[in-house]
Amino acid sequence: MKGIDVSYHNGKIDWKQVKQSMDFAIIRAGYGKSQIDDQFANNISEAYASGLKIGIYWFIYAANKEEATLNAKMCEKCIERYKNIITMRVWADWEYDSDKRNPQTKESRTDIVKTFCNYLSDKGYEVGIYSNIDYIQNKFDDLSEYPLWLARYNSNIDGYHPFMWQYSSKGKVAGVASHVDMNVYYGSLEGFKKKRSNIKLGSRGADVIYLQQQLVLKGYQPGSIDGIFGTKTDKAVRLYQNENNLTADGIVGVKTWGSLY
Asked: Rounded to two decimals, what is the model's pTM?
């Protein structure tokens, strides 16, 4: 499924237009111990009314596990009336700005995120972790018990088993005036691989982004990594197919995908 994640920074959104090209929205409910996102109520009610599936994220500011619980309680207070429509999880978001306010060790940072997630899980919410590879490799201990929403732009994501992939922060979607974060939801890495569609010249979207990334990693030049299967990408695909004993027809189907992984 294709989706966007938004906060008040994206301004007033025309969700009916968004629904024409997207399947879901991950909406920021708020941040810290007491702050509700200024557009949360509008975003969640209008996104749901438009027919989009709904998820939530909360930006954590906490000095310790006690404050992590306060973050979780405030998140619960914001979203409890919408519990029945939140089908795309509640995601714990700890980022560099969280560390600027409250410097942590790897152990304490991990404990804070776990505390947040476990509190909401105990209240009946499906939860997950939003993170990037720097944090996964260097700043968190093992968080693999939680589904991963991985932020990684213009690069290979194999090996990280994401439930959801945020592949760009510069998306353009009808109904959103600003650039917007773009996501694909797979449910697991195996789902990510199995659900690849056949693509060719003229195709657009996340599958094309991934194709272009894989081509670059293998030494081929598809042009810009922009999700648009244009003539440069077509030329790179045909060259790759020709040099790897595949039918050089420019169509990226099961055999070409299998070779690229």
From this structure: 0.74
